[in-house]
Amino acid sequence: MKKKETVSVKVAQERLRQIEIKPGTEIIGVSEALGRICAQDVYAVINQPPFPRSPLDGYAVRSQDTQGASIKTPVKLKVIEHICAGMYPSKKVESGEAVKIMTGAPIPEGADGIIKQELTDEGNENVELYESVRAYGNYCFQGEDVKQGMLLFEKGVQLRYMHVGIMASQGMENIEVYAVPKIGIMATGDELISAGQPLIPGKIYDSNGPLLEARVSELGCSALRLKSLRDDARGLAEAVKSAIGHCNALITSGGVSVGVRDCMPDVAKLLNAEVLFHGINAKPGSPMMVMVIEGKLVFCLSGNPFAAAATFEVLVRPVLERMRGREEWKPQRVWGKLNTAFQKPSAVRRYVRGRIEDGIVWLPEGRHSSGMLASMAGCNCLVDIPGDSGKLDAGASVEVILL
Amino acid sequence: MKKKETVSVKVAQERLRQIEIKPGTEIIGVSEALGRICAQDVYAVINQPPFPRSPLDGYAVRSQDTQGASIKTPVKLKVIEHICAGMYPSKKVESGEAVKIMTGAPIPEGADGIIKQELTDEGNENVELYESVRAYGNYCFQGEDVKQGMLLFEKGVQLRYMHVGIMASQGMENIEVYAVPKIGIMATGDELISAGQPLIPGKIYDSNGPLLEARVSELGCSALRLKSLRDDARGLAEAVKSAIGHCNALITSGGVSVGVRDCMPDVAKLLNAEVLFHGINAKPGSPMMVMVIEGKLVFCLSGNPFAAAATFEVLVRPVLERMRGREEWKPQRVWGKLNTAFQKPSAVRRYVRGRIEDGIVWLPEGRHSSGMLASMAGCNCLVDIPGDSGKLDAGASVEVILL
């Protein structure tokens, strides 16, 4: 094959951004919604609290009745009812009357204040108050936390535990969320065998399949692991065509470079695919290709494990986030200072694995090759090194993408 | 009930820390291990790569044979074999010989360097080399990434996608992980009804049950939601006793204060529980209680939704992390600057909900009451305000716990 024209990461990202993505939605139970992306603006259907509520244990009174009350000049009221949380008052409080009330119970009609039980004689039939209360003192208004009709949270939010709690407090049973995209994962290469099989000379265990499957799952998509395939263009083309029939997108690894067994470009031709780009002006993973077949995106990553992992973050993840309903998702990028010098400048943009902790970026020394995977164990970020950076000294500021 | 002695958060945490926790372990498939906590140190069982490997498409040669090669004085070698990734060389390279080799293929015996195909005439039976290679140039050594026996990662690590990929690359099928603790969740209170039921006057929808269930699930534990119960000490005691029989720990909400319907202290007596503490010197959630029954921890949180959520983070989560195998887990605490003043100093330590973004801490204005839940929708941290802080001005540095 001829050397093809490569695009910058920015151009590649922009071409992907131009692809229209219309995630489906579904209505599910609030109790299953954790981690899903909300597909509706959520409004309050009831007031919270649903009734005026006592914030403490004490007596519901008419505030006017309590004026001038003190230890020396207590005000005596008739206790007409006892109300606990979960009960509802049956009587209206008239002048000279009080209702003994517990935290969380509804304040009866007529009362406009609560006197703490510690400021009374705690009587059950009559009560002596040792302090006055102002109008609406210790009074939680209906709808004080949430007014019916108020926007609680917006479409596009990833539902966490607090959202589940808020929806439950509103009595909501169901919620519209975006459907979980199904992502096919297909590792290719004659050299691959699966874990559990004996290691035949010349073969290696497939790590791209399991790694990509796990990452896709971490990101809240449904990963469909497909059989690893040999380097055969016709067989691969058939498998790709079949896979896109039951996936929202497909990720392959291997076969994208210029060797005799690099079949993915031939697959593109056989399937009459629209190739968005083939080759990015960045390391690792520069041979990667993205094509569209029957409206479905097929990401063809390098077979080198770290190259596949790095290009996944930079070019695949943003698309997956849009597919799951996060149209506005952006990677978390932060700045840190290199702990040691980085001696391998490159004319092209470079993604290097690292660990950021308290603003310091640690690089696994000498273990950066795109074929190496093990040094990712302690990593939590990709360091994004511009093409023109030159050699980086210890202490240099670098931007990282959090994993 | 009499007012009881309260303990500081620090003392409460220390008493919980003293409780011995012995998480169980189990052996599971690597493909199910995502998110679990590793219960073994993981060592490499094979070298990676398993054989000396070519990092590029080209020719495997004896470096000595290539000395002096240039465009003008090419070195001509006999091509004795073609090797792709996944194949294994059948011949040794002798002087004057070369093997055509593809990226990822095993380097044949005798060869000690690879010449890039772009620096040759790309011949199939004979090849002309236009450059020399030094000994072990372009040569990936066996075990270069990982040496058999090397420690890959340690016990206690939460398994992420890279760990799954690394284990797969080693051909590992199974891994020992900590068992997932089963945590019972029981909301109590006569006022509670469940989502989907009509809202009867005086009742509220239970949000603590769903919120705690969701949070426990987010943290990788298995949440066992138990029926919400009425404020009745005997009924509650029975339910608690039954629950701890099939949970590793139990979390209740409601009934811990000093009102007539606050039954949890009576439950403690009825079940002859060891009370670790009852009452913390902090807000919100100060009435909370922790007891040990038949060796199981029972966390009795306040019924106020935000109080339950906040004390969960500070006092329950650290225990759950230990139960799932993260003995050394610490909350992520960072410093930020308040966006607005916080006007409500308190004599005791205070936990306030907030949102930290780029070092700025936003507080949901005027919506801090422990009964309010809705304002947690946009929050991602708890601001930890010491008891002696006084009024905090805008710009003040505060420490937050990330949620």
Provide a compact summary of the structure:
With 403 residues, the first copy, chain A, is α/β, with parallel strands linked by helices. Chain A contains six helices and 23 strands. In chain A, strand 20 (349-357) and strand 21 form a beta hairpin.
Description:
Two copies of one chain form a homodimer. Chain A is an alpha/beta fold. The radius of gyration of chain A is 32 Å and the shape is elongated. Chain A has four domains: 9-24 and 180-323, Molybdenum Cofactor Biosythetic Enzyme, Chain A (3-Layer(aba) Sandwich); 25-48 and 148-178, Molybdopterin biosynthesis moea protein, domain 2, CATH 3.90.105.10; 58-129, Molybdopterin biosynthesis moeA protein, domain 3 (Beta Complex); 333-402, Beta-clip. In chain A, α3 runs parallel beside α6 (305-323) and α4 (233-245) crosses α5. In chain A, β20 (349-357) and β21 (360-362) form a beta hairpin. The model of chain A has no long low-confidence stretch (mean pLDDT 94). In chain A, the strands form six sheets. In chain A, strands 13-10-14-18-17-15 form a six-stranded mixed beta sheet, with helices on both faces. The first copy, chain A, starts with 8 loop residues before the first helix and ends with a strand. Chain A contains six helices and 23 strands. Chain A has helices at residues 9-18, 161-169, 208-218, 233-245, 264-270, 305-323; strands spanning 25-29, 42-43, 58-61, 75-83, 97-101, 113-116, 126-129, 151-153, 174-178, 182-187, 192-193, 204-205, 222-225, 249-253, 274-278, 282-283, 289-293, 296-301, 333-338, 349-357, 360-362, 381-385, 397-402. At the A-B interface, α2, β12 and α3 of A face α2, β11, β12 and α3 of B.
